[in-house]
Amino acid sequence: MAIEIITIPDLGGADSVEVIELCVSVGDSVEQEESLVVLESDKASMDVPSPFDGAVVKYLVAEGDTVKVGDAIAEVETAASEAIAEQTVEEVVEEAPAEPVPVEAAVEAPQAAAVSETSEQIALVPDIGSDDKVELIEISVSVGDQVEEGDTLVVLESDKATMDVPSTLTGTVKAFIAKEGDKLATGDQVALIEVTSSAQAVVEAPAPTAQVEPAKAADPASAPSPAPAVTAAPAATAAVSNDSSDVYAGPSVRLLARELGVDLGQVAGTGPRSRIQKDDVNNFVKTALKSGGNGGSASASGAGIPQVPAVDFSQFGEIETVKLSKIQKITADNMQRNWLNVPHVTQFDDADITELEVFRKSLKLEGEKKGIKVTPVAFIIKAAAAALAANPEFNRSLAGDGENYVQKHYINIGMAVDTPRGLVVPVIKDADKKGIWEISADVIAMATLAREGKLKPSDMQGGCFTISSLGAIGGNGFTPIVNSPEVGILGVSKSQMKPVWDGSDFQPKLMLPLALSYDHRVINGGDAGRFMTYLVKVLSDIRHMTL
Ligand code: CAO
Fold this sequence. Notes:
By secondary structure, the protein is an alpha+beta fold. The chain has four domains: 1-79, CATH 2.40.50.100; 119-196, CATH 2.40.50.100; 251-290, E3-binding domain (Dihydrolipoamide Transferase); 328-546, Chloramphenicol Acetyltransferase (2-Layer Sandwich). It contains twelve helices and 28 strands. The chain has helices at 79-86, 89-95, 103-108, 214-218, 251-260, 278-290, 326-341, 354-362, 364-370, 376-390, 436-451, 525-540, and strands spanning 3-7, 17-22, 29-30, 35-40, 45-49, 54-59, 66-67, 72-78, 120-124, 134-139, 146-147, 152-157, 162-166, 171-176, 183-184, 189-195, 237-239, 344-352, 396-398, 405-407, 413-415, 417-419, 422-424, 427-428, 465-469, 488-492, 496-501, 506-519. α10 (376-390) crosses α12. The chain is globular, with a radius of gyration of 27 Å. The protein starts with a strand and ends in a 7-residue tail after the last helix. The site of oxidized coenzyme A has 20 residues, from α10, β22, α11 and β25.
């Protein structure tokens, strides 16, 4: 009987996470996409779904265990892998294009093609996120090569992105079934691999079960947070190729390098066959920042930034040192990166929301019936969506190549939420298409999930523009930091009644202070002036939103 071992997929940056729930009883059947376990990091909880229909034979983890990417979590008996197991090598060879397959190598293979009973397995094209066929543009290893899990087997190219297809197995490449120039679709066979040990024979999930989101990953500009794409099976990831140099690194490492402005050609890889890992990039940056520093003097570091001297505060009084939460650390890194990379300008204005408040308060009774509280934030999100539609410059991101920008044709608004564990930014999707009730319900749901630490990675991805509202707390204004690769962020402060001159008299008006920070590489002052003026107009008279 074919048993497959399910492993922890890419956690998108989280080092280790806790198993908080085993969702299926041992012996019970599980359907494809049904959750096997729930993991929780400081940032979010994540479901790990089963990649196929089957039955849980046993769990290899317990609730409370701390796990990391690649750890085995369960054994699942699956009909799908039996089907693959029954496929003989001869069948594989028959199906394969004649030219690229060294038949001898394939025929020497002992028996079946895919699972634990034999040491031969077929690498398939995982879910590439569309039904279209994509071209195989590069075979990255040779027949006879030893490949490690994670090594790139082939590179596919669509009109949108190039995609590395990494091996999910450690073993020897016995034959390539596909050749350069072939057009491949999800589930097509790529290569025959002889695994080196049964312990490593984690069966690659059949293609239909892969959960990759190549479109998102392919557009670094639309994926501002490093949140993981939760996948049940390791699969191909996609990224726009940085260049055609022969640097040996996967797409996520290339994306990180682009975000940090690191030239991968200067980074020494410590992975198998000198493959560059994320840690190599991070260490390169740390070393660059430290080099040139001399124990905290004001001299410039390698990156030209003077180091902040370390101070022993205990000499001045009692202190305690408290560990930063994961979210706090991620926020600190993101803020510093964005502050250093983005040339910020902040523009200020006040919107007269006197009428908006009258209207909002008139919704109170209806809101109580619906169980939805409408705060000014919902109107600000709606107005920002309208301003984005009217000023598409704010819905752009610089492309990683520095030669292009990406114009987004969807409008998702991120909303900063203050939680006990730190700042998180869930995203209200398609805010331009939603009404105030729906946006209000989203705001409540997202803020609740955020505060309970239950946001899914996908809840925090795909933002185009962020709103940071301190309106319920107070203050006249602040200069928010752009949530790069977005190019604009709106800081909202507390509305106050103010005397406003109407030409002949002072009128009491409820004024909402707004601060718009923008990336001056993408947005000009004129663009920002028009965006802000439009926003103020819409908030002052919400009938404009309907135009
Ligand atoms: N001016 C005056 N009052 C405001 C206001 C404003 N701009 N915005 C909201 N309010 C009032 C609401 O009317 C409501 O008052 P009532 O209860 O009397 O009706 C109250 O503030 C509600 O506040 P809230 O925080 O519960 O809900 P919200 O919809 O205003 O905001 C959220 C939701 C998630 C944005 C908010 O809770 C939050 O977390 N804000 C912090 C964001 C943050 O930390 N930003 C900084 C990031 S950079 O470090």
